[in-house]
Amino acid sequence: MNERSLPQPAAPLTGYTVVDLSSGIAGAYCTKLLADGGAHVIKVESPSGDPLRRWSASGAVIPPDSDGALFSFLSGSKHSVVADPDVGDDVEMLRKLLASADAVIWSAGSKVADFQAFTPTAIREVHPHLTVTSITPFGLEGPWRDRAATEFTLQAWSGGIVGLGRGEADRAPIFIGGQVGHYLAGAYASVATLTSWLRGLGGELIDLSILESQILGLTYYPVTYFEMLGRPWRDARRRTIPGVAQAKDGLVDLGCGTAQQWFDLCAMVGHPEWIDEESPLSITELANVYAADIYAWVAATPVDEIRDLATAFRIPNAPVANGANISSLDHFQERGSFVRNPRDGFLQPGHPYRMFPAQLREPGSAPRLGQHTARYRCAEMAPRPAPNAAKARNRLPFSGLRVLDMTTFWAGPCCTHYLAMLGADVIHVESTRRPDGTRLIAGIPVTEDAWWEKSPIFAALNTNKRGLTLDLQGPRGRELLRSLVATADVVVENFTPRVLDQIGLDFAAVQSINPSAVMVRMPGFGLDGPWRDNPAFAYAIESAAGLSWLTGYADRTPYEPYSIGDPNAGVHALNAVLLALEHRRRTGAGVLVEAAMVDAAANVAAEQVVEYSAYGALLERAGNRGPTAAPQNLYLSADTDEFGRLDSWVAIAVETDEQWASLCGALGKPSWAIDPALAEVAGRRAGHDLIDEHLAAWCADRSGDDIVATLWDAGVPVAKVMQPHRQTELEQLSFRGFFEAVDHPVNGRARLSTVPMRFSAGPGVFHTQPAPLLGQHNHELLAELGASAEEIDDLEADGVIGRAPTMYTAS
C-alpha cells in the first residue's frame, strides 16, 4: 500500500459544530479558521445576506446571483441558513440549531444577531452548554460598549497609528492599510473558542474586544516600556532606514533590527568605516546619519543583486509584494502558497499553518445565500447535554500542560505567553551566550548593573514562565534539552530552520524522545523553499506578504507596518497549537506544526491577491483614506501634544449614509455638508478633497476631546490618535482590567497588558508571576530532571548554565 492510499486522519475539529451569527471580517475569519480545522460551521444570515457578499475593496460590481470574492475566500466549507427573527418557524429552527451546537460566534449588525433572543447573554441563559464568543469593537460591557467604531478609528485609539513612528514629520501619521485589526480579532476569537473547548467544562461566555486585539498586534508593549524606562518607544515620525526603498528596477525592503545587522549593512554598501561599536548613537540614529548614501546605493543596484547580497550578509530582506506579483514570487510558487478558490477560481492564500500527521480541511466552496436552509428546517438535531456543574469552574484551561519554549523576540514568546497566562507550565529556554533578543533592545547601557533584566519588552512577554539557560553548543546542554523534551507536551521554536538542524532536534528527533509531543516550528518563511534560511523580522515578513504595499502615502514608497508581522504570527501559531492538541487528545499522536510567519501574514493580506485575481484590480495605498469609509482621514486638532508640538490628530470615518447624516447634524448642517451629492457614498468619494478641507477647518480650533464628544455622541465613528504609552487613560480598558500591575524584582512595579478577551469561567487575573530573571529557575528545573546539587553546580561552573550573559551579543 503506498502512502497516498493510506487513510487520512480526520481534521482535528471533526464533529465540532459552530453556529456563526457574525457579520464582517472578524467573525468570518474566526469561523474560517475553525472550518479549516474541521469544524462544521453553519452561517446564519438575515434574508438580505451578509454584507460581505456584496463587498469588493476595489469597487468591483458583484452580480446579483454571485458573491464577492472575499466572501468566497472567507466562507469556504461553511453552510448557509437564512432566518428572519420575525418569523416564528425561523426562530424555532435557530433554537434547535443552537441546542445542537458546541459554539456560537456572534457580532452585532445583522437582524438575527440584534434580535433580543439571540444576543450573547440571552443565548447563554437558554443554552448553558454553548461557548458563546462575542466580537465587538470595545467589549460587551463598559462605558464604550455602544460606541461607533471602524478599523480606522480603532487603530487610532490603540496607538497603532503613531506607535512606531510611521509617516513623515510634516504630514499626518499613517494607518496600516487594509483591515488587519479585524483579522487579528478573528484569529484571537478562534483561539478563545478553542481554549474554551479544550478547557472541557461545557459552555461559557467569551467577550472579545477588537480594540484590545489591535493593541496587542499594532503596538509593542508601550505602557510597560514607558513605566519601566520613563520614555516612549518613539516620540517622532521617521522612516525606517533603509526600510522599503526604490532600487534600480523596483522596490526592495531591507532592515536592521540588531547592531550586527547594521555592521553588516555598512559592509554590504561598501562603507565599513561607518562601523563604530563605541558610538553613543543608536543604530537607528546612525542609519539616519548615512541615509542619503544608503538610498543612493540601493537606487543604483538591481533588486535581485541587493537581495542576494543581503541574504549572504544575513540581513533581513524581502521583495515588496502586492496583489499583482505575490503569487509569482519563486518562494511562494515552490511552496504552493496560493491555491485556486474551489468555487470561483480566483487565487487565494493557502492555510496560514501546516501540520502533520494531523490534517487541515482542504478549501471548500462557499455556500450560496440560504443554500442549506431547507436541510436544517427539516433536520433532526439532537440537543447537546447540559454542562457538568460539578466540574471546577476555576480550573485554568491549560493546567497540567507543559511547554518547552525555545523562542525569542516577539512572535514565538507571544504565542507561548498566552498559554502561560492561562495555566500552562512554560519553560523559557535561553543561553548566557545568546539571551532572548528582547533583553538586548531596550537601550540600557551594558555598564548598568543587571542591564539584561531591564527590558520592558521581555518583562511584558514572559510573565508566568520559568526561565532556564542552556548552552546548546555543547553536548551536555543538548542532552539536558533532550531530557526536557521528554517531559514536554509542546515544544515551540522560532529560529531559522538551519539552527535546529545544527542542534539535531528536528521533528523526527523529538518523536524518538517523546512520540506524543506537539512540535511547533515558527520559521519566517517556512521549512522549505528558496527563502527558507533567510532571517525574518516583522518588517521583511510584512513586505513579502503585501502588508507594506497598502501602508503609506500615495506619492511615496510604502512603509512597513513594523509591528503586525510578529504578533500575527504568534496568534496563528497559537491556533495551530490548539488544533494539534485536539488531534493529540483524539489520537494520542504527536504533531508537527509549521507556522511560517509569512503564511500567516499572507492570510491577513488576502484581499489584495483575491481582488487582483478575481477582478484584475490592484489595490493601492491612499494615505489615510480607504475603501470602507468616506470620508476617512486624520485631522489636526488644536491640542498641543505632550512633546510641545501641534501634532495631535483625530480620526473620523463615515461608513454609512446614516452616519453621514449624523455627522452633518453634529456640524450644524453647514451648506457644504447638506449638498445632495454627498448624501451617498459615491458622491462623498468624489468630493473627498472638499470634505477633508471643511473637516480640517472645523477640527483646527477644537480640542480632541471636544471633537470626540461632539461626533461620538451623534453616532459618528471618531477617535483621538493616541500616543500608545497613554493607553491606560482609556476608561474602557480600565473597566475591563486590560492592564494588570506586576512587581518585578529588578524593575519594580509596572502595568502589563493581558489578553483581548474575558472568559466568564475565568481567570480573573492573568499575570501571577513576573517574567523570569535570566536562568532564575535553573536549579529548580534541573533538580526536577533528577540532577543533584553538586551536578548543577558543576554545570554552572562549566558554563552550561548561568545567570548572566557571558558576552554581549546582539546578533
Automatic annotation (TrEMBL):
The keyword Repeat does not apply. Pfam families: CoA_transf_3. It comes from the Bacteria. The keyword Transferase applies. Keywords: Transferase. SUPFAM superfamilies: CoA-transferase family III (CaiB/BaiF) (SSF89796). One of its GO terms (molecular function) is CoA-transferase activity. This is CoA transferase. It comes from Mycobacterium numidiamassiliense. The lineage of its organism: Bacteria, Bacillati, Actinomycetota, Actinomycetes, Mycobacteriales.
